[in-house]
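Input set for joint prediction.
Command: fold jointly, output tokens.
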Amino acid sequence: MPGNFFSKALARLTGADCFVHTLESMMRRNGQHGLIGQTHLRLDSVPDIARLEESAARLAAAYPLLNARARRNPLNLLVTWREDKRVTGGKLPVNLWAEKGARVPEGRQATEVLSEGDWVDHVLNQPLGFRDGLRNLHIDLIFLRGGGSLLVLTWTHLLFDGKGAEFLVDALVNRPPLGTAPGAAPPAAASPRHPVLRLRDLVSEAGPVVARFSELTRNHYASLAGPRPRPGRLKFRMLNFDRDSTKRIQARMEETTGPLFSLGFYLACALRAHREAFLLRGEDPEHYVVSIPVQVRKKGRGNSPFQNCVTILFFALEREDLKSIETAAMCAQRQFEEMTRARLDRSFTAVLELMSIVPAPVYIRFLAQQFRGEITSFFHSFTGEFSANLESVFGASVTNAYHIPSVSAPPGSGLFFGLFNGRLNATFSWREGSVSEGEVDAVLARLRDDLLGRDGPDIRQSKHAERAPT
Amino acid sequence: MAISDDPQCSRKTKLLEIVSQDILEVGPGFNAQSNLFDAGLDSMAIMQLLLLIEQNFGVQLPAAKLTREHFSSIDDLARLMDSEAAG
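tokens >
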């Protein structure tokens, strides 16, 4: 029988994976399909498709997790990835698409789409398994009217995080990693022992962050979606900054929080941008709480792509803190130092490990009670440099690379930053119905002004996926 | 003075150990001159490194002194710690 707990076990889900598992359960019950991410690599031409296909096939053979299913064992309550024989042969095809009017390479067939934007919008708003099998990763190549191409990886956040997706890109394009080669198996779980066997240690480690939650939940903080889960299509818009603008942004960041710590600056920008949406509604929340994922992988390449290797730091800022970028960023920086000093990163990992054996319905109810339905005012991350020194994919130069993260509702929105080759990309993702178009405009206008300064130069704003799908 | 008695040498050795075991996934050939940012050092890693330096060496590096140049390599970081110890 395919995909049940008698199938071969491949790896245990981490505590962070189990949180995503729970979030996805809530999302699927409320018409949100799941936490699906996309990674885009913009190419100046068409890559060698045969080599790309060979590489994808090699990945599928090396990484059985790409075609596995997560199942909870009712006996020990652990969730593990298991081989799923419904995915015949464990293949990983490269699907070809062409914008209307784009040139299709000779000898190749591609499905025509009206535009890249329409295709992206359509794919992001379908369950991941809606086409060619129940895969955890899809690889698509779109030939663009302008002559270039877009390589898209669509993946379930249950399988990896944004950094993991970048390591998978490394593996796909055969870049030799530093140190050991990317492993076919994920790294060993935080502990091979069942959480119940480590109960006393985990409860002790969890103490500091539990105390932090008590402080955070004393005040009401809001998200744009509100506390009740609601359906809505995923939408996004991007700001893509050129090198000169990015240098200007980084100089501004260095003046604010110094040259080494970017977290506070980008969080401050994200907070003030979200506040604009509330102001447009005639609201001005007094409190914000923002959860920021931080990598627990040791930094550097040679890491396995798999598992959500993150813990979360919870930042709390008040309306008064947001009066300027400088005050907001310094407040966030102070909290960053305090939380790292107090090892709240490790403490939250212990909480995630403890909760990993809690079935999703109970986990959801617990979160709803503890946090009054709002786990964060919005999602936010800064993933840093995208796969440093990625220059080409099988003969095609990479002109830009970024992620399109999904968000759940609540909170209904998220602001995400990443760098590629000296250029900053900012993605605002939201659920339709949680944020209006006018509020989106306000968020992006404030973001642009805060990143660049009020009189910043024009930057390209990508109106991806705003039109209704055909 | 034997190398093992040299405090600067043992500080550098300890820093190398901390970085390669607790902070970064380093490859073969990683040494005290290797660029830490190229090896993946980011905000969180720097913060964790500062705390480990405090715990292992009793040195709290002042924020005003923290520049990219000081964190470029273990050699550079060790030089900063030496000047803090001397000052």
